[in-house]
Amino acid sequence: MILKNKLTRETLEITYPEFRKKFAKEIQTAFESYRRTQLNKYSYNFKDNNSMEFNFYFQLQWNFNHFGNSNWYIERM
């Protein structure tokens, strides 16, 4: 995974498990934002929280970059 800082243009190349550990708080914030947005749109599609979480991680790059409140963004997976 290649992550880039929006402010300093620093590049960070890490593995997926390292990303999950280092950016756990940012991922959780992005997921909560994604969850609120999806529930406001069409809550009838999601029977439980697991399907919503699956959809979030299925498009992790887009969701992390657009719903997260981080100075880092995923440039490439």
What does this molecule look like?
With 77 residues, the chain is an alpha+beta fold. Helices cover 57% and strands 16% of the residues. The chain contains four helices and three strands, in the order ββααααβ. The protein has a three-stranded antiparallel beta sheet. Strand 1 and strand 2 (11-13) form a beta hairpin. Helix 2 (24-42) crosses helix 4 (60-67). 14% of the residues are buried. The model has no long low-confidence stretch (mean pLDDT 90).
- Major beta sheet, strand line-up: 2-1-3
Whole-angstrom Rg:
13 Å
Say how many strands there are. 3
Beta-strand residue percentage: 15-25%
Shape assignment: elongated
How far the N terminus sits from the C terminus, by CA atoms, comes to 4 Å
Structural class: alpha+beta
- Unreliable stretches (pLDDT < 50, length at least 5) are none
Largest sheet: 3 strands, antiparallel
| Alpha plus pi helix count | 4
**Strand-and-helix sequence, N→C?**
EEHHHHE
Which percent range fits the helix content?
55-70%
**Mean residue pLDDT:** 90
